[in-house]
Amino acid sequence: MRFLQTNVIAHRGASADHPENTVEAFRAAGPLGANWVELDVRRTSDGALAVHHDAHLGDGRAIVAIPATDLPPSVPSLAEALEACQPLGVNVEIKNSPHDVDFDPAAALVEPVVAVIAAAAQPILVSSFHGPTLDRVRAVDPSIHTALLTFDLGDVARTIGDAVAAGHVGLHPFDRTVTRELVGMAHDAGLLINVWTVDDPARIEELAEMGVDGIVTNVPAVAAAVLRG
After folding, report:
1. What is the pLDDT of residue 228?
2. pLDDT value at 160 more than 60
3. Which of 53, 109, 111, 180 has the greatest count of CB atoms below 10 A from its CB?
C-alpha cells in the first residue's frame, strides 16, 4: 500500500547513518527518501544559532556559555543547516526548555531564528515544547507556520483547542500517545499531525493508515520504503 500523503521527516537528518544534526546527515536525508528534515536550534553566548539537540556539547560545555567560534566544526549554524537541507522542507525545533541551562523566558533567540528563516529557500515549520516561545514566533512574524510539540497530551480536547487558539497549524505528539481518535480530532480541528519518533516499519504503516501527516524517523529509507513502496 502506498501512503503518498504522509511525509517522511528525517529526525535530526539521516541520523541512523550519520552523526545527528550535522551537514552530512542533512544532505543524506533526501537521497534516502525524506521530503522533510527535523533539526534543533539553540543560542550561543554571542547570540548565534547552533544546530544541536542537547544544551551541552559532548565535552560538557554549555552551548549558551560559549561563542560560536568555539563550537566544534561538526555543529552547523542554522543558516548552514537549512542550506544543507535544500530543497527539503525543514521543521525547526526551537529548544527553550525551563529545565535546560539555556532557558530564556523572553525567548530572545526567536528574532534571529525568524531572520534566518526569512532567507530560507524551502518550506519551514517551527515547533517547540515551550508554548510561549511559539507565541513569540507568531508575534514576530505571523506568517510563519508553527506546531506544538507534546510528550504527554493530557486532556486531548483541551490540548487541541489550545493549539488552534494559539494559531498553530500542527500538533507534534509523541508516538505512544497517538491513536486514531487523536488523529481524527486534530484533523477535524484543522491541525496537522506529525508524529515523533518512529523507526518500526509496522508502526509506521499503522500510523499512515490512521492518516497522520508526517512521521519523524531516524531511518528515512525504511519509512520511505513502507510509505511509498
Report:
1. 84
2. yes
3. 109
CATH number of 7-228: 3.20.20.190
pLDDT grade for 105, boundaries at 50, 70 and 90: very high
Extended strands (E) in the chain: 7-11, 36-43, 49-51, 89-94, 124-128, 145-150, 170-173, 192-195, 214-217
* Beta-sheet pairing, 36-43 with 49-51: antiparallel
Return d(Cα 179, Cα 96) in angstroms, integer.
28
pLDDT tens digits, 21-31: 999 999 999 99
User: What are the distances in angstroms from CA 3 to CA 14, 23, 137, 206?
Assistant: 21, 28, 32, 11
Cβ count near 77 (within 10 Å): 17
Cα separation, 129 vs 74, in Å, equals 25
Cell (9 digits) for 201: 516499519
Q: Compute the radius of gyration of the chain from its Cα atoms.
A: 17
Q: What is the mean pLDDT of the chain?
A: 96
